[in-house]
Amino acid sequence: MDTQTIVILDFGSQYTQLIARRIRELNVFCVVLPCTAPLKEIQSYKPLGIILSGGPSSVYDPDAPAADPKILDEQTPILGICYGLHYIVHHLGGVVRPGPKREYGDAEVTVENAATPLFAGLPPRLQVWMSHGDEALELPAGFSRTAVSSNALAGIANEERRIWAVQFHPEVHHTPLGPQILKNFVFGICGADGDWTPAHFVETTVAAIRAKVGKDHVICGLSGGVDSSVAAMLVHRAIGSQLTCVFVNNGVLRKNEFQSVQKNLRDKLGLNLVAVDASERFLSKLAGVTDPEKKRKIIGNEFIAVFDDEATRIARETGGVDWLVQGTLYPDVIESSSVKGPSQTIKSHHNVGGLPEHMKLKLIEPLRDLFKDEVRRIGRDMGMPEEILSRQPFPGPGLAVRILGEVTADRVALLQEADDVVVSEIKAAGLYTKIWQSFAVLLPVMSVGVMGDQRTYAYTAAVRAVHSEDGMTADWTPLPYEVLKRISSRIVNEVRGINRVVYDITSKPPGTIEWE
To answer: Identical fold at 5-189 and 198-389?
Structure first.
């Protein structure tokens, strides 16, 4: 691998993705691996540096996650964060114990060794975010303190071994100068150039796909969203007509989406696209089903069945299909892996690992190491329309997870109209690209209303709009009252069957972004 890479070893921290994002913001490529990754796998990236993440465990727990201790002897620069500091101390002969006073939240740190390159250019006192109950009681031989808080040691270093560690979290926004600390590590200590660009990614990825596929035929399941569209364009640029894309109407798409996706991807981008209208097939399977998890699984299973039918037909016409393209992103990979065995299933419709075994297709996942914002940068570099790239995330089960209760053709039509009002008004207000997701939800709640001189008895629609960086956490968006007023007025007046509109002001956690 000729790309300069920082390897992040994940010990189960909720902040691991944030570390990766901060490194990528420096135009430096990084990859997150489980802490249990074999040393050979880590070495295969020829890392400029290694970051050991935080984590919820204690190093003295019997089942504490651990990396191969040999990484500490590699002379590759290492930065430990929180649990990563404890791991370094524990495995090099120091002592870690439960602290007499735990630290959670804002804290002030005093830099004791301003000469250490990790704190270069920083003031002597730093506002940081702490999240730990353990502390390093005794340091291993050759290590010295570089920073302290009022309650505990906050930084250590052994510059001869090229190891640094901090007790706080530089990756979170609660540590204002944290990005500078990471920048010092990546550039000042590891010597990175910061030359990772979309153009470089496209060039190397296209060449790798072309070499891997040869003259084989490839299929891609397109959703019309950012991820699958950019993945398809990368593969199309590599192998052209050897790629066939399949777009399935599952009956729970947004208004006019089946037509607009075909127009954008086939007509504007020139992809070889097969469009399959299987809406009746999906809706018949969903009839009478109200359990959210059952709805997700029905849609996922039926999509595989429809896609399998098309793959079989395409294979007959082309002489065989060998590869499947998926728009898997890095958050998908992280959610689907764990440092201590299989993770809890966060999204049961997830595409990672979702390939049916009988299809026997090899995977191409060109975006597997990227975050959503990076995927958009790649798409822009390839000249893709902003209409595709600025599209907000849309769930795999579509409107089915936004229709509470049974999914029927009539209820889908109602939600399509209400959702179209929400999206069009938010776009008109210039807010669409500033919001992570915005949409309508159809509730199985009917209420009395008055329209003109008549009483109505109709459904309730909920409006949802959230801010987020990666979908893992989210805050509800305070939409301007005028925007909410226009949305409510239009839905009630234009969508016959809905007479009440409410606004969802729940963040994630405790709620989820989708309602089901």
So the answer is: yes
